[in-house]
Design goal:
Layout lengths: L3 H34 L6 E2 L3 E7 L2 E10 L2 E8 H10 L9 E4 L5 H7 L2 H51 L2 H13 L4 H22 L10 H14 L6 H25 L14 H24 L3 H8 L12
Antiparallel strand pairs: 1-3, 2-3, 3-4, 4-5
Helix pairs in contact: 4-5, 4-9, 5-6, 6-7, 6-8, 6-9, 7-8, 8-9
């Protein structure tokens, strides 16, 4: 014998189970959307859809809203529109009410969890992210332009300093590095390291310092720092020591990049190429440090040169009779 009441009860139970499953999926969707946008301050609105309607002039409409890690329903009623029309309130200034998607009327939740409504929400969020990406691209281009202009200024000053120093090997290394850096970041990085070594060794040679047993950058840069510091005025020594210690840090950083990313020690299979920005950073850092070192070298001639220039030769002949 048929049991219509039992069938209705079973149908109601299925309905409640599916409604509960939909509510759980709303929570999963909220978590997924929050993870997708991360910490980006974006919000999204779906297209407007009808939520409830009693008759032709009495209805509620709304749209799905995402923001601050929360999905909600923004809604208005037809009577709200009538009141705003009466008071002449512009559509952009009309107030919407809001309720959480997990707390709203289950029927509303079912209507906004529609394929078309969800697609419009995702599209709007994508547009917000795209607009933000476009703004960041403009900012990056502006910063890149400034950096490139600054880099060109550094290049010109370095070229003048190197050419004025008169060391052909150093000048050749610098001009070759400028030419090849845009073509091969890894090789350019190795050339910058070699350039720094050559620079420090050349300065030490010019100042009459005997060749070091270990001519790697770490040691020649340290010796160059100590040699240049020795000729600084006493009151400026502490500041000069701090500056030159920072210069030594530049050498250490370039050495680390060279050992891990450049082609100086060969290239391992599957290795990730170094971003050109790092090679540009190394070039600018080396040039800035080189300009400073060369300026201190030229401002404070070697002590041996000073002694030869200022010493008065002894005259063994007797003094003239008075």
């Amino acid at each position: 014998m048929d049991n219509p009441i039992g069938a209705l009860m079973a149908q109601r139970q299925r309905l409640e189970q599916k409604a509960a499953a939909l509510r759980e999926r709303v929570e999963v969707l909220t978590a997924d959307l929050t993870a997708a946008v991360g910490e980006q301050l974006v919000t999204g609105l779906s297209d407007i859809t009808n939520l409830d309607q009693s008759d032709e002039d009495d209805y509620t409409y709304g749209q799905l809203h995402f923001g601050g890690g929360r999905l909600s329903v923004r809604y208005r009623q037809s009577r709200d529109d009538h009141a705003d029309d009466y008071h002449g309130i512009d559509e952009d200034w009309r107030q919407w009410q809001s309720i959480g998607l997990t707390e709203c009327d289950p029927v509303w939740r079912e209507k906004v969890m529609d394929e078309a409504v969800l697609a419009s929400l995702f599209r709007h969020i994508g547009e917000q992210l795209g607009a933000r990406e476009a703004r960041i691209d403009v900012s990056l281009a502006a910063v890149k332009k400034v950096i490139e202009a600054e880099s060109a200024t550094i290049d010109a000053a370095m070229t003048a300093s190197v050419d004025g120093f008169g060391n052909e090997a150093l000048a050749e290394n610098w001009h070759r590095a400028l030419t090849e850096l845009p073509l091969d970041s890894a090789d350019g990085l190795a050339r910058m390291y070699s350039l720094f070594e050559t620079l420090c060794s050349a300065i030490l040679h010019e100042r009459g310092v005997p060749p070091l047993r270990d001519s790697s950058l770490r040691h020649v840069l340290e010796a160059c720092r100590d040699e240049l510091l020795r000729t600084e005025p006493e009151l400026a020594r502490e500041g000069a020591r701090q500056i030159l210690s920072a210069v030594q840090g530049v050498g250490t950083g370039i050495g680390t990049l060279r050992n891990r990313f450049s082609s100086a020690h060969g290239t391992l299979p599957g290795s990730v190429p170094l971003d050109p920005a790092y090679a540009m950073l190394a070039k600018n850092a080396v040039a800035t440090a080189a300009i400073f070192l060369l300026s201190r070298h030229q401002a404070n001639p070697p002590a041996a040169h000073i002694e030869r220039a200022t010493s008065v030769p002894n005259d063994p002949s007797p003094a003239p009779a008075s």
